[in-house]
Amino acid sequence: MNSNPQRALFTIVTVSYNCCSLIEKTIKSVLQQDYHDTEYIIIDGESTDGTVEIIKKYAQHLAFWCSEPDGGIYQGMNKGISHAKGEWILFLNAGDVFAETNVLTKVLPFTKNKEQDILYGDIFTLRGNERVIKKALDPCNKQRMFFCHQAVFVRTELMKQYPYDTRFKMSADFYFFKFCYLTKKKFQHIPIVISVYDRTGISNTHRIAGLKENIQVIRELDKGWDKIKFLIKLHFVIYWNSIRTWIKKNRI
What we know:
Blueprint: E1 10-16, H1 23-31, E2 38-44, H2 51-57, E3 64-67, H3 73-83, E4 88-91, E5 97-98, H4 103-107, E6 118-127, E7 130-134, E8 152-155, H5 156-161, H6 172-182, E9 187-196, H7 202-205, H8 207-221, H9 224-250
Parallel strand pairs: 1-2, 1-4, 2-3, 6-9
Antiparallel strand pairs: 4-8, 5-9, 6-7, 6-8
Helix pairs in contact: 6-8, 8-9
């Protein structure tokens, strides 16, 4: 890791809470990157399950870490943003890992384009023990994220200017990126698999609640036909998921 974080190109932030079975593989994945002009920050929400003891093992490699109460994942992420000194910031939360040890090296050439505000790639998801590529879409406006949060690098100055809106418990990232798209920030889809996504995260285990927050985001940010179209799609998805859940519960 960079011994002078003032000059780091990449800031990697991990937010954790009571995830002692997951945090170490994420830490090792970050520290094993072969590009070293980076700083690594861990924000823990005062875990009590041994997570802090694992973080302490790697403290010498961290630019900053803390373990203290916060108001949820996005408050933790905002805390990481406030300490970030790198030019680009990526959130790789507990359980997520880089797809390869040379991901940052592969991303490096794309950071030279001074016009881009947000760089994002693809991810692997796990189907059993098999890695399956999930490709991001080209830049667009949708009723959901068109890339995975664990595969996006944002200019740190942009995140400091517009930190996550903590009114949202699961969709503050959706709000941020939709806001950026609608205000003409420059997105680039880069042809790199960035991370292996841990599907046990809150956005997957509380999907309906997340979709309902997406409705609130769309009501606030979208206009005209886009707003109508996206709201119809989300209400249908919520309705269909409710039916599927009822069928599963009542299946004989």
